[in-house]
Please model this.
Amino acid sequence: MEYLDLYLEKRPLKFGGADRSFESADYAIVGVPLDDTGSYRPGTRFAPLRVREASMNIESNGYTIPEAFLESVPYSDLGDLGVTIGYTPGTLDRLRRVVGEIAGGGKKPFLIGGEHTITLGALQGLNVNNLCLAVFDAHFDLRSVYLENRLSHACVMRRVLEEVRPKRIAYIGVRAYSQEEILLAKSRSDILYFTPVDIVRMGPVNVASYIMKSFEDCENIYVSFDIDGLDPSIAPGTGTPEPGGLDFLGAMRILSRLIDDRLAGFDIVEVNPLVDNHDVTSVVAAKIVQEALLLAYSADTRKRGRMK
Ligand SMILES: [Mn+2]
Model:
């Protein structure tokens, strides 16, 4: 518990009200209030608190597995990472150590951001081979540098490509990019992407099947859910909203097929309570974290059943 004690600040409010110890849990929730590089509207540092608050006031059943309830999932809410405000490398360094310790204890991290940059630290902390990455996002985040900053949230997946080198990245809901980004995405066989128009045309189930086919040879899957992948009409509280996004149930139908027993970790990022409308985005984010936990637990339970 060395880094967990050193870098995590316990919070009186626990996600979903659970108060289980780290040792007895299979999943570890950590808030990561990193808010250094938001290019349009800052405020993601307030998301872990507000998403936890929302989680206390919603029903705990699943959408895609309606008979499952959060109370039965063995997870622990460890609190928030103490961030080194204004110095992104310091926060990422702490996050790497914390995620490494969680994974080293045999638990799966579920992170509540914070800006998207946290995904880099999370993946480096996990340090797994044969990784496939699924990203719900309006953006590619593949710029080499943005406003002179290589650790901007607009560059996070470029750094992931260079430093983590996943086997494959699948984007879901991408619809806003620079010419540099779309050219890079098109030129690489390890990147596949589906715009919201593709998803409407193909249907969410076919999109998920296509992605899982391409993830077949991966031993580990990480899911990063940028809330701006959803349409701003249902998730307005985010720094860089883009119209024409995913609908909630469509996104959940895809998510339910991407999470299996290979899931190594999960994050939800870019929720910004300062520009939200009556906390609706925090509620949506809490529901997504809850659904991801239910799906992971259901998949891991099935696996344990097979191994008996
Ligand atoms: Mn985004």
In short: Residues 2-307 form a domain with the Arginase; Chain A fold (CATH 3.40.800.10). DSSP finds ten helices and nine strands in the chain. The CA atoms of residues 268 and 275 lie 17 Å apart. The mean pLDDT is 96.
